[in-house]
């Protein structure tokens, strides 16, 4: 049977990775597939060929499917391209599953999203359904938990949530908004300083990404995210071709995925604070300087037995 939730696939210049994500989508045979592709960079001659190869992957569709494409002639960059693509997608559909070209989902990710999109369609404080999960004990019987973190390596949402999104974060200029958001969603002065810096830089356009603005939109609107009991999406894009994720040894890279089947749904919506603390340490907490120095030494020792590029060696 064809899968009835529209899927948006955002791609750029990595045809091999895109092909793996497309294979996962193809097994679901979605009725509606939207493909948004960024354009080649002017200073990278190889981009033109790579972007063309990437775009041709959707020609492999061999099932009954309505395909819509948004192919940019020029390079918009991660910040603008993905934000515009998602807005474009929600301009046509009330709900979407969103995948980028390096996020390979387990087959159970799709029914997981579909069920939760239906279950929480009218629950306005639920703004994101994520396919990501990080090591943390899940003691509830529902196979998912509620988090403050809108993790976006494979996710789903509704038009009613995305309407709050503002890439430029114009409301961040309000000190009242800053105090309310940071006061509600941070637990220490160090965590508050971390997000104060991130949001200020994102507001100023200094970070080439779109997702920090989504975190802010969620927090500003008292939003929560659903995370699965076990990981459903693997990011295979860590490496030199990535925009942000260069460290192939990161604990977030190439993580295994698992079958997740939702049983019953909880009667109360409560954030799992302890699980969020684990996510903070793995994903968002800056690595202590001592650990960074230890990492350098480890890589130097490893370099003597397993050579690698000098550029990669000193990516800290």
Model description:
This protein has 316 residues and is of the alpha/beta class. It has helices at 15-26, 46-56, 77-90, 109-119, 159-162, 175-185, 189-203, 211-220, 273-284, 289-305, 310-313; strands spanning 7-11, 32-37, 66-71, 95-100, 103-105, 126-130, 144-147, 155-158, 224-228, 233-235. The protein is built from 11 helices and 10 strands. An 8-stranded mixed beta sheet has the order 3-2-1-4-8-6-9-7, with helices on both faces. Helix 1 (15-26) packs parallel to helix 2 (46-56). 35% of the residues are buried.
Instruction: Please provide the count of β strands.
Output: 10
Structural class computed from helices and strand pairing = alpha/beta
Order of helices and strands: EHEHEHEEHEEEHHHHEEHHH
Helix content: 25-40%
- Beta-strand content: 5-15%
Please work out how many helical segments DSSP would assign. Answer: 11
Low-confidence stretches: 288-316
Overall 3D geometry?
A: globular
What is the radius of gyration computed over CA atoms, rounded to a whole number of angstroms? Answer: 20 Å
Distance between the termini: 47 Å
């Amino acid at each position: 049977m064809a899968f009835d939730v529209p899927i948006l696939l955002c791609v750029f210049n990595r045809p091999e990775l895109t092909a793996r994500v497309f294979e996962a989508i193809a097994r679901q045979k979605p009725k509606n597939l939207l493909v948004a592709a960024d354009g080649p960079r002017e200073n990278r001659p190889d981009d033109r060929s790579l972007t063309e190869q990437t775009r041709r992957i959707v020609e492999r569709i061999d099932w009954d499917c309505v395909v819509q494409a948004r192919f940019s002639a020029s390079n918009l960059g991660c910040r603008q391209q993905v934000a515009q693509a998602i807005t474009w997608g929600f301009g046509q559909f009330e709900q979407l599953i969103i995948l980028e070209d390096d996020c390979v989902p387990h087959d159970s990710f799709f029914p997981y999203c579909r069920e939760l999109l239906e279950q929480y369609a009218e629950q306005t404080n639920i703004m994101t359904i994520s396919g990501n999960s990080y090591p943390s004990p899940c003691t509830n019987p529902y196979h998912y938990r509620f988090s403050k973190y809108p993790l976006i390596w494979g996710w789903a949402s509704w038009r009613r949530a995305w309407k709050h999104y503002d890439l430029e974060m114009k409301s961040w200029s309000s000190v009242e908004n800053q105090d309310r958001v940071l006061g509600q969603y941070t637990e220490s002065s160090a965590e508050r300083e971390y997000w104060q810096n991130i949001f200020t830089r994102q507001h100023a356009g200094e970070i080439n990404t779109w997702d920090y603005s989504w975190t802010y939109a969620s927090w500003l609107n008292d939003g929560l995210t659903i995370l699965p009991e076990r990981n459903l999406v693997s990011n295979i894009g860590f490496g030199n071709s990535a925009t942000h994720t260069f460290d192939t040894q990161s604990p977030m890279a190439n993580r295994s995925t698992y079958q997740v089947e939702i049983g019953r749904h909880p009667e109360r919506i409560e954030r799992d604070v302890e699980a969020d603390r684990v996510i903070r340490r793995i994903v968002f907490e800056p690595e202590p300087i001592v650990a960074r120095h230890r990492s350098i030494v480890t890589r130097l020792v490893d370099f003597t037995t397993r050579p690698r590029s000098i550029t990669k060696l000193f990516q800290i």
